[in-house]
Design goal:
The protein is mostly helical and about 150 residues long. It is about 65% helix and about 0% strand.
Length: about 150
């Protein structure tokens, strides 16, 4: 069973407990560990550790400035969605993981009926690089994920 399935099962269990709760206060107290507020940086760091990849690899392949990347990991910066997508492309995450992380951190999910998002989804599914994704977006005349460093 993959992590995505496990996350889904955990959500189902929490929902079941919520539906059967007699008191919201008691439910919140009994399930406080479920409501950990993790930053996108914490999720990225966990994924880097899980995949046993180097931060330098992610920094290089995402094209994000090292200081800015480290600020994201430390929770000192909240990046916009395009930077998160750049990081996820560099880490070669599966679409289902990307969608889960985006949702968990209150970023809009990638939407297949949005042209730009459709290209990004294609690139994620085909393990294309940030550079390849940007070239594809540029070719179609859509805003790319950016190259500039912050």
């Amino acid at each position: 069973m993959d992590d995505t399935t496990t996350k889904g099962n955990d959500t189902k269990k929490v929902l079941e407990r919520l539906c059967n709760a007699k008191s919201m206060t008691a439910f919140m107290e009994e399930n406080r560990e479920v409501f950990k507020d993790m930053s996108i940086g914490e999720y990225i760091e966990l994924e880097i550790e899980k995949r046993n990849i180097k931060k330098a690899y992610v920094i290089k392949n995402s094209g994000i400035n090292k200081r800015y990347f480290n600020d994201i990991i430390a929770g000192n910066k909240t990046p916009n969605r395009r930077y998160i997508v750049r990081i996820f492309l560099a880490m070669e995450l599966d679409l289902s993981d990307v969608q889960w992380y985006l949702k968990a951190c209150d970023y809009p999910n990638l939407y297949a009926k949005n042209k730009r998002d459709a290209v990004i989804i294609y690139c994620l599914n085909n393990k294309l690089s940030v550079d390849e994704c940007n070239k594809m977006l540029n070719k179609i005349g859509l805003e790319n994920l950016g190259f500039e460093n912050i």
